[in-house]
Write a structure and sequence with these properties.
The chain contains five helices and no strands. The protein has 110 residues and is mainly α. The protein has one domain: Orthogonal Bundle (Helix Hairpins). Helix 2 runs antiparallel to helix 3 and helix 3 packs antiparallel against helix 4. The chain is elongated and about 50 Å long.
Length: 110
């Protein structure tokens, strides 16, 4: 195990953290600039993946598998969230016939 960790040097950690920051940044910009609910949802998932990559990199550097274990839980919760969010988007699309988030901000009880 120590030989495997020895091959994981600082430059690869920096590359993983840079990649995770770029993923998170692209997701954040996409979420804030788009109004389509499906695109906003995909950008949220992209931010989750950026955070997960950072956790894996830090866990790998410190030789602690807790980061990788936590990422498995994050992916499981993200899959459940994806199913729930897609169901809600389909339901709200049938009601409003648009995917624009501005049109959904005025939802009230029937």
């Amino acid at each position: 195990m120590t030989e495997l960790l020895a091959t994981y040097d600082a430059s690869s950690v920096n590359a993983a953290l840079l990649t995770s920051s770029v993923l998170f940044g692209i997701g954040l910009v996409g979420f804030l600039s788009r109004r389509n609910m499906i695109v906003m949802f995909l950008c949220t998932e992209l931010m989750f993946q950026g955070a997960a990559l950072a956790m894996i990199a830090f866990g790998r550097v410190h030789g602690n598998p807790d980061g990788q274990t936590f990422v498995i839980f994050i992916l499981t919760i993200a899959a459940a969230e994806a199913a729930l969010a897609l169901g809600l988007v389909v339901l709200l699309y049938r009601r409003r016939e648009t995917l624009d988030s501005e049109a959904w901000s005025e939802l009230k009880e029937c």
